[in-house]
Specification:
The structure holds 2 protein chains of 2 kinds. Chain A is of the alpha+beta class. Chain A has 2 helices and 3 strands. Chain A is globular and about 45 Å long. The longest helix of chain B is centred in the middle third of the chain and has 10 residues. The chains are: A alpha+beta, B alpha+beta. At the A-B interface, β1 and α2 of A face α1, β1 and α3 of B. β1 of chain A pairs antiparallel with β1 of chain B.
């Protein structure tokens, strides 16, 4: 097994669905997940607060 | 996870579901990548709902878009700490 370079530590708290609040390591500012656009339509949801989906964050990470 | 719980009559909010995750980053071929993600869910469930909660934990990954995206690339490991409310 390769040596560990980094451990990514995350906490995620469920808020009113579909909203979630996530903290990365000891950074104090949370990020929020939810649904919007096509993801909301797929789930047949109309969120009170449109938010980026977890899949959006994956794509953003790939672009970064 | 919340959807799988709520589909089985288990509320996920407020203050009923949170998760801690640890992602292992290694560089087996000289380039960093996430090799393993371990997630521990912390659930507070109504009395008598443990079988439904355990079923949700067992099957939710098949309906999780991120888990399905990472499948085959990153090893995902799930655990749960379940706090069942008194009857």
């Amino acid at each position: 097994m390769a040596d560990v370079v980094h451990l990514s530590r995350i906490r995620v708290y469920q808020e009113q669905r579909p909203k979630r609040r996530a903290y990365i390591a000891d950074f104090p500012t949370p990020i929020y997940f939810g649904v919007h656009a096509g993801v909301a339509a797929f789930y047949k949801m109309t969120p009170e607060e449109p938010l980026p989906s977890t899949l959006d964050y994956l794509v953003a990470a790939a672009a970064g | 996870m919340a959807g799988a719980l709520e589909a089985r009559g288990i509320p996920s909010y407020p203050d009923r579901l949170w998760a801690e995750a640890e992602g292992t980053v290694a560089a087996p071929e000289g380039v960093m990548k996430v090799t393993h993600i371990k997630v521990t869910y912390h659930l507070t469930i109504p009395a008598g709902k443990r079988p439904e909660a355990e079923r949700a934990l067992a099957v939710f990954e098949t309906r999780c878009p991120v888990a399905q995206t990472l499948k085959g690339c990153v090893t995902l490991e799930h655990h749960a700490v379940i706090d069942e409310e008194p009857a």
